[in-house]
Design a protein that fits this description.
This protein is of the alpha+beta class. It has helices at 10-21, 23-29; strands at 34-41, 48-54, 60-66. The protein has one domain: Dihydrodipicolinate Reductase, domain 2, CATH 3.30.360. It has a 3-stranded antiparallel sheet with strand order 1-2-3, with helices on one face. A hairpin with a 5-residue loop joins strand 2 (48-54) and strand 3.
Length: 73
């Protein structure tokens, strides 16, 4: 697959959408951590997913995943 557009690339957008769809599966593997919100920026360059989490102690945490496709070689 030859990528001609990287800002964002179709692959970045698809990959971020797939990751977001796995929210429940990710949460089930995070023992004692609840995903209370998932914010996506799918149409920007390097789409981001910001996971807002709450642990067993009630503490809030954020994890950000940025999807970046490197240029074809």
């Amino acid at each position: 697959m030859k990528t001609t557009h990287y800002s964002p690339s179709e692959l970045e957008v698809s990959f971020s959408r797939i990751l977001a769809s796995l929210r429940e599966e990710i949460e089930s593997k995070l023992e004692g951590v609840e995903i209370i919100n998932l914010a996506r920026t799918p149409s920007e360059n390097n789409p981001e997913l910001k996971f807002s989490l709450k642990d067993l102690d009630g503490d809030l945490h954020e994890v950000v995943v940025r999807v970046t496709q490197l240029p074809d070689k």
